[in-house]
Predict the structure.
Amino acid sequence: MVADESAELAAPVRFRDVAIVGGGCYGTFYAGQMLRARERGKAEFRRLLIVDRDPGCQFAREIGSADDHQLIVSDWDEFFDQFLDRPADDSAAADTIVPSPLMPHLMYRWLLRRAQARWPGRRVWQAPLDDPLGTPYDTAAPDGTRYVSFADWLCPVHCIEPGICPLIRAPRTWEMGEAVERLVERRNRSSPTAGPALFTCRHRVFGVGMFDAAEVRAGDDMVQEAGSAGTAVDIVVGTVSACHGAVSLLSLGTE
């Protein structure tokens, strides 16, 4: 059997609920791709949940809600407080999150809120991440998050980050998660630093990148473990793909 025939016979990728951040151009594209993937037998899911504060967003105008794909009119933080608080599913199909390239560091903000609720009498805050990662693009936002990229060029829209970079036409020799791990090692030599809690976006079907909700809950477990001793510690949190990322510090004071 040739490779193309084998791919045609491959089992569909299974999901439970897929939360898509934003109902603008990116979220509408991702929702459309997921619906096409299912139509062609490449994906199965229970529901697509497209989250946007605007009831008249692009998704509402161009695709619209149905039984299996729904616009959730909500603030992103409020939505994830509910979505991530649901019990995990024991089946093979997992809840997943499709981030937007232009969103704030939402998963970090969820971890921060969880830590503040867990330790109400303890200082829990976002300290600025002053340590560069050493990537070609590396800039600090006003809230202390670092936005980083291995690309010093303009990437193609909806690039799936293949092994051969389509811009330089050479093997992709970098992985952002490894760069964040090295950052933790460097920081920990001079100041107690845990992690990283990484949420790694991979392109799973029809060019749609996502990570499992279980990864975010595991990050919350990591924060709880790092803070259990009651001593001051920083936890590095990153939402990354192979090439790009948002990296923040979650700082815990002493109890």
Summary: The chain is about 30% helix and 30% strand. The longest strand covers residues 13-21.
